[in-house]
Each structure stands twice: as C-alpha cells, then as structure tokens.
Amino acid sequence: MKAYEGMLLLQQQQQKRQRFTNPFTSLTEEIVFAILDFLGHDPFSRKSFSLICKSFYSIESRHRKTLKPLRSDFLRQILLRYPAIDHLDLSLCPLNEADSWDVILSLCKSTLRSIKLSPSMFFANAGFSKLVINCSALVEIDLSNATEFTDSGAAAIAEAKNLERLWLVRCKLVSDIGIGCIAVGCKKLRLINLKWCLRVSDLGVGLIAMKCKEIRSLDLSYLSITKKCLPPVLQLQHLEDLVIVGCFNIDLDGLTNLKQGCKSLQVLNMSNCPCISHVGLSSITNGAECLRQLNISYGPTVTLDLAKCLQYFSELQSIRLDGCLITCSGMKAIGNWCTSLKELSLSKCSGVTDEGLSLIVQRHQELRKLDITCNRKITQVSINSVVKSCTCLTTLRMESCNLVQSEAFVLIGQCCQFLEELDVTDNEIDDEGLKAIARCSKLSSLKLGICLKITDNGISHVGTGCPKLTEIDLYRCIRITDVGIAAIAHGCPDLEMINTAYCDKVTDASLKSLSKCLRLKVLEIRGCPGVSSVGLSTIAQGCRQLTMLDIKKCQNITDVGILQLAQFSKKLMRINFSYCSVTDVGLVALATISSLQNITMLHLVGLTSNGLVAALSACRGLMKVKLHRFFKQLLPHSLLDHLQSHGCVFQWRDKATAQLDSD
User: How confident is the model at residue 662 (pLDDT cuts 50, 70, 90)?
Assistant: First the structure.
C-alpha cells in the first residue's frame, strides 16, 4: 500500500514539473539562432529576448558576432560573455595598456575577422603587430582617422596575409613606403581606402595596382596623384568601384592614348575634379560597359558633348551632377539617352530650367530618386512634369525651390504615393499640401524646416497618415505648437529623430508626448524657451535610446534635468547645452555616462574650472569638446595632454560671453 502511494506521489510530482516546464527549452539552438537573425540589431528586441530564460541568455551570447565596447577595463568580461565575436569595433575604446591586446589575442585569436581601431591608438606598439600576425582569420582592418599611424604600422599590417579590406582614411603620416609594404604583403586585398593620405603619390598607388590584382574598390580621394597612376589602375581586371574625389592634379585629357578603360568598372566618383572634360571622361570610361553609377559633381560644365559621351551606357542607373553648370543642349542630350535612369541628382546646378527638367523626366520615367535642391529657376511646370512622369518616386529632395507654389505640393501627395523620403525645406508648402502628402503612407523621412505656412492642422494629418515616419525636421516652423507635436508622437511610434529648434511655441507638453516614442535617438530643441527640466526629465525616463540631444538656449533647463539624463540616458553620445542654466553639479553628473563622446558647453555662467576639471577627468570616451577659450588657461596642461592623447579634440571659441566664474 505504501509502495503504491509512493508511486502515485511520484507521478503527481512529475506531472507538476511537466506542467511548469518552460516550453522555450524545447527549441533547438538553430531555431533560436534563426529568431535572433530575424531580430537583427534591434537593442530592445535582443535584450528582451535574452531575458526570457537562461537558455536564451546563453544562446544569445553565442549568436552575437559584433561588439562595440565603450571601456577597455571591461574588455575581458565582455569577450568572455560573447565568445563568438568576429567583428570588434574599438573606435570608442582606446587600448593604451598592453594587457588589452593580450586579452583580445587570447580570447578572439581564432574567431576575429574584422577590427576597427580607435583613432587614438598608438600603432608602434608590439601588441598591435602581434594581433595582426596571430589572427590568421583577419580579413578587415579599419584605421580611419588614426593620426599616429605611420609606415612602421603599415609594415605590421603587411603581415596580415589574408587581409581583404583596409581603411586608412586620414592616415596622413603614411607614405609610399608604407603603402608599398602593404601592397607586397597583402595581395588578397579587395578594398583599400586611402582618402586624405596626403603623403601617398603615384608611386604608392601604382604599387597597389600592380601587386594587388584582386582589388574591387579603390578610394584615392584628395591624394596628390596625377594621370600617371591611372593606366595601371584601369587595368585592374576586377575593379568595380573607383573614387578619385578632389584629385586636382589629374588631367584626364592626357589619357586619350589609353586603348581600353576598365571593363569591370561599375561605380565612378570624380566629383570635385575641375580638370575633367568630355575628352577625359570618354577616356576613363572607355569600355566600361557595366558602369551603373557616375558622380561628376562640382566638376565640368555639362555640355552637349559631355552628355553624348555617356548616352550609350545601357547599364547606367545613377548620375550626380550637383553644383555643375548645365547647358540647355546638355539637358536635352540627357533626355535623349537610351538608358532609363533610376537616380538623378541636380542639386545646386545652375542652368536647370522647366523645359530641360521636363524633357529629362519624360524620358526617364523609372526614376526612383530625384534631387533638385536649390534649383531656383524651376516652377510648378517642372513639378507637374515630375509627378506625372515619375509616379514611382521614393525620394524627392527639393529644398529652396522658391518659385514653386503651394499647389504643387498637393500634386506631389496625389501622384507620388510611394515616397519614402521628402525634403521640402524652405518652400511654400501649406496645410493643404501636407494633407495631400499624408497620403504617402510609406513616408519615413520628412523635412519641413523653415516652412512658415504650415500649422498644427497640417502636421496632424501627417501624424495620422504616415505611421512609418522615423524622421521629421520642423526647424523654425514657428506656427507649430504642442498640439502638432502630440499628433506626431501619437501617430508615429517608431519616431527616431525630431528637430523642433526655434519653434518657440513648443513647451514641456511636447516633450511629455515625445517621451512615449521609445525609439527616439535624436532630439533637437534648441531655442525653445518653453522647455524646462520638467520636460527633459520625461524624455530621459521614457526615451532610453537617446544618443544625441541639442538643448542650446533652453535657459529653463537646469541641473535637475541634467541629473535625470545622467541617470537614465546611458546611450547618450552627443549633447549641446550651451546657454542653459547648468552648473558644475550637472556637468559632473553627465560625466558618469560612459558613452558620451561629444560635448558643447559655451556660455554656462554656473560652470567653474574646478567643476570642469572634475568632469573631464571622469569622462573616459570623449572625442570632441567645445569650450570658451577662457578655460584653456585654467585647465591643467597634464589633463589636456592626457585627453588629447586618447583622441579627444578641443575646439576653443572666442565669442563674447557673460562673466565666467573661475573659482
């Protein structure tokens, strides 16, 4: 009898355990990985997912492949938590201790494929060389803005025999010698970016072209190179993307004897190259039958001859002519091209007329993106042609087209309902235009800065009709009040950026409404006198993803609001609180935000040198600080040297200011 009762009790216990067993534990790791892949990089979703149960927490740690730490002293713990990291972004995390290199090498040696290093990194140390030599899986290194990177560092990189992608943007101490070492050692390179490497000449570029035959992407922007290096570059059989922006010494007209251009070339950017003519352009594009994107902005005059030399590129989909003078014959020739463009940019072009633009859009009816910013001669005639011909537009930028009347914006809303991005800054749009544009339900970005006719009524239509909106710019829209902002906050829950700078009718009520937008990352409310610490506190508590905040000239914001930011806005990276009523107390509290990189603090009457020293000493990741020059003589040189050695740039301003307390 007792044995029977014991068995019955055991069965009941087993049934009870089964009843309370976590159903998620039955999911395989492959299924959980698939779910995490679907979530992508959304921090809300990933964090919530990992906290469901212990197994999910463990699986999420093995799934994560990329990591961007803020502090090197936590590096070991983080890498132990995430053992499968293959991309390590150290741009915010200077490694000034040799131990940090050893930590990375010991924990990521077999998995690390990509590394982005801090601009403040000292590259002559043995740790970096050891990392490059021993991480055999390393295929990508980003050293952009590394002012200390020299030819000796380049020699160390040459040991990365499997390297495929390398960024050396603004590494101004690198010369042809260092580039030669990389060319000889890294023959598997597919991408190299040498933008602003001012000591690299034709010799270094030629060595890359001769030794690295697998190059697909090459950026030579702002180098002191001439046409001499282009023949070997154009002979690269796999080259797809060539960027030679701002290469003022290149005279392409001298390449007429070039028998064949680069057949594989798909993207060519020659903007800011004033020496280009239709002869040189024909030479460099000769044989480039796969050319899809061309950028000659701020370059030659677009004449009939220049337009004709591009008319037979059947694959051409995108062309940028920003800042160029376009002749009437040039516009007509573009309108006669055999290809049908998908993207056309005529921003700040002179010579664009209603007749010419109408001819172009009638031929290129498959346009998806059109930029006619600052085309001050076009009228509603052009807009009529655009909206009737290009009904599938997803992007339309038309800032400061001052002759376009308000009726045109009604047509845009009626005819271009696939729009995702619309910029009508400084235009005559009114509430009727906004009501029509609100029919564009896919709209994600709307820029309405300096549109003085719009009111809450029009903005409310946008809030109702555009639920996918993530970005809205209302800069100096002086008739917008809390009612309009509330409509946007309520109707656009995925809002990530809003600019209400100098909207003087916006108050704390707007910030309370926006605090419900949990994905908000960028908030610009400078010059809004009705905003105070009360509203800022609601933003800090509700918008935990905030990364950029501009509260300049919000004089009713005090330490109370800043203390709330310090407590809740742990992802804040950039802040401007000039002219606010903030003292040392608020500044020292801000210094506890480990992600903070950029601070602008001018004309703070309550700020003292002692408070500034305390705050700057506590900040670990600062990259840029903007201060009044008055403080330069009061800060210890040792502190400034320490911060600058860690990559921080100080910008000193001389503007007249109120009396400053130096105590």
Answer: very low
Give 3-state DSSP helix, strand, coil % of the chain, rounded to 5. 40, 15, 50
Taking CA 641 as the corner, what is the angle to CA 637 and CA 644, rounded to the nearest 5 degrees? 140
Q: What is the rounded distance in angstroms from the CA atom of residue 70 to the CA atom of residue 86?
A: 17
Task: Give the three-state DSSP class for 232.
Answer: helix
CB distance 265 to 242 below 8 Å: yes
The answer to whether 579 touches 551, Cβ cutoff 8 Å, is no
On whether the CB atoms of residues 393 and 419 are closer than 8 A, the answer is yes
Counting Cβ atoms within 10 Å, is residue 417 exposed (0-12), middle (13-18) or buried (19+)? middle
What pLDDT, on a 0 to 100 scale, did the predictor assign at position 545? 94
Quote the CA–CA distance of 551 and 523 in Å, as a whole number: 9
Would you say 296 and 281 are in contact if contact means Cβ atoms under 8 Å apart?
yes
Helix segments in 519-619, DSSP class H? 533-542, 559-568, 584-590, 609-618
Question: For 228-243, how does the pLDDT look when each residue is reduced to its tens digit (9 = 90+)?
Answer: 998 899 999 999 999 9
Query: Which residue type is seen at 451?
Result: C
Closest to 138 measured CA to CA, from 157, 119, 118, 151:
157
Q: What is the pLDDT of residues 529-546, one digit of tens each?
A: 999 999 999 999 999 999
The alpha carbon of residue 35 and the mean position of all alpha carbons in its chain are separated, in whole angstroms, by 27
CA-nearest of 452, 442, 443, 439 to 423 is 443
